[in-house]
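G., the chain you wanted modeled:
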Amino acid sequence: MSRSDKAARDAAFADFVTRSTPSLLRTAWLLTGSHDAAHELVQGALVKTYVVWSRVHEDEALPYARRILINHRTDTWRKTRGEHPVAEPPERPHHDGTTADDRDRVVRMLAALPDQQRRVVVLRYYNDLSEHAVADLLGISVGSVKSAASRGLATLRASYPTNESTTEGSLR
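Predicted structure as tokens:
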């Protein structure tokens, strides 16, 4: 590989990192509940993505990095089995009218879900991936995605406090 090829490869990867890091960080934070663990998870995923960057197509780069992130999260969870939720997600790009208390409540509710349900709910509804994309990403069947999403949402709905400011469709 010539210097100019390596420079172009590195520039393309740097651009990918700039564009994808906020999304990967928010996903990692929702999966781990920890700001520090989310950063470590994203750094690990980006390092592994860089190693194979020359073989990754640009349109497949984010799903590839997300898969690495999820696999690494699963491996880490199996080793530690511990969660440390925090109240504020990293680098929120905009204010959507929710309060820190609302975000904290959602993170704590997600942390209470079994790991597979949490992964499915975050990928399916937060990252807005299709059932097939989630199934491919997690290496499970579409039926398992549907089941985990249904159970996860039912648990979230049951644990979500109701009051005048809560709308019926807020967790659909």
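The radius of gyration is 17 Å.

Shout if anything looks off.
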